[in-house]
Automatic annotation (TrEMBL):
Major site of localization recorded for this protein: cytoplasm
Keywords (A to Z) from UniProt: Coiled coil, Cytoplasm
Protein name as catalogued: DEUP1 protein
Record's subcellular location: Cytoplasm
GO biological process, one term: de novo centriole assembly involved in multi-ciliated epithelial cell differentiation
Organism encoding this protein: Rostratula benghalensis (greater painted-snipe)
Length: 169
């Protein structure tokens, strides 16, 4: 029983540690997403600044080429951002699924533990009752043994008196 409880406790501690690691990973992913958003915002500001600088300093043909390059770069960054968002979404879904599964498992283990505690309490009550019954039976047997020994003693005394009387007669 102790081993089962210890094993359950170790399992719960292991799952709790895993749960904490998942939460930490989720927080790290959120932090990365915020950094990416900040980076994207900064790039958009730089793009706007570069765009205005290009408009002021270069010829219309060069501006079109640079705008195309900037648009391609922005499109590439948007794709990367979408990949990161998709990955983050999958991680969050996985995390939620794992969280629900762990909650269900913890609930089941808690119920099982509760049932085992009830069983142990019942067994302890029965053991206590049997112990009391055994003590009572031992007391009765001790009394009967004492009576038997007393009767044996009386029998021997009467037998010896009988033998003594027979000899006298």
């Amino acid at each position: 029983m102790e081993a089962d409880f210890s094993e359950m406790r170790n399992e719960l501690q292991s799952r709790d540690a895993r749960w904490r690691r998942i939460q930490l990973e989720c927080q790290q992913l959120h932090t990365e997403l915020l950094k990416i958003r900040e980076y994207k915002d900064m790039q958009e500001i730089q793009i706007q600044h570069q765009s205005s600088c290009v408009q002021l300093t270069e010829q219309p043909e060069n501006k079109k080429a640079e705008l195309l390059l900037l648009a391609q770069s922005q499109e590439h960054q948007q794709k990367e951002l979408n990949k990161i968002r998709s990955h983050l979404y999958r991680e969050e879904q996985s995390h939620c699924s794992e969280q629900e599964r762990m909650k269900t498992e913890i609930s089941a283990l808690t119920e099982e533990l509760h049932q085992k505690e009830i069983t142990i309490a019942t067994i302890m009550e029965k053991a206590s009752l049997l112990e009391r019954q055994l003590k009572m039976e031992l007391e009765i047997k001790d009394k009967l043994l004492a009576k038997q020994q007393l009767l044996d003693f009386r029998y021997r005394v009467i037998k010896s008196e009988n033998t003594h009387l027979k000899e006298m007669v």
